[in-house]
Write a structure and sequence with these properties.
The chain is mainly alpha-helical. The protein has one domain. The chain contains 7 helices and 2 strands, in the order H-H-H-H-H-H-H-E-E. A hairpin with a 5-residue loop joins strand 1 and strand 2. It starts with a helix and ends with a strand.
């Protein structure tokens, strides 16, 4: 039996364990909510995680559609990047999958029904996904900081205008007439 076949056969138990470990990374109250609230409108984060984790898993283990795989990874990373996770905490969920896969396949690897090389190749691909996740996290954080900086500039500019400390700058339009830019 091939590793991918075994992991697809055990997909439901792997996904359940993986989701539980991901939700364990949240504070107790959030963890309970993520697990118990099944309404996707009341719990969009839990719903997105469940959906995207399954998509990622099935695309990663099976014949992958790179666009679906990338989109699933990006959705999870985007969510975690706006939460209080460090970069390592945001991508840790991929290493949790590696741990689960090792545990799920340990008997087969020990019994030589699955080669160690096959498992190592899969783990290497997970490492690559984690590196891609880290890059995504950094891009998301940069965007968050850009948005926050823009909002801060806008607020300061508005305050300075109201206080009369800055005014509109005159400019000339394309016809040579004086106009104001603000």
């Amino acid at each position: 039996m091939k590793l991918e076949e075994l992991l697809l056969e055990r997909a439901s138990q792997v996904l359940k364990r993986w989701t539980d470990l991901i939700f364990d990374s949240y504070p107790a109250d959030a963890r309970r909510f993520l697990r118990k609230q099944e309404d996707p409108f009341a719990n969009p984060v839990g719903s997105a995680f469940s959906r995207e984790i399954e998509t990622f898993y099935r695309e990663f283990i099976g014949p992958a559609n790179p666009e679906k795989l990338s989109a699933a990874l990006e959705t999870v990373i985007r969510i975690r990047s706006v939460q209080e996770f460090s970069a390592s905490g945001a991508v840790r969920f991929l290493f949790l999958l590696k741990k689960i896969i090792r545990e799920e396949t340990s008997k087969e690897v020990r019994g030589n029904r699955i080669s160690q090389d096959e498992l190592l190749a899969l783990e290497s691909r997970l490492d690559d996904a984690a590196l891609a996740g880290f890059d995504l996290y950094m891009k998301c954080k940069e965007k968050v900081y850009e948005i926050r900086a823009g909002e801060a500039r806008s607020q300061v500019s508005g305050l300075l205008r109201r206080a009369g400390l800055i005014s509109e700058v005159p400019a000339w339009d394309s016809e040579g007439k004086k106009s104001t830019l603000g």
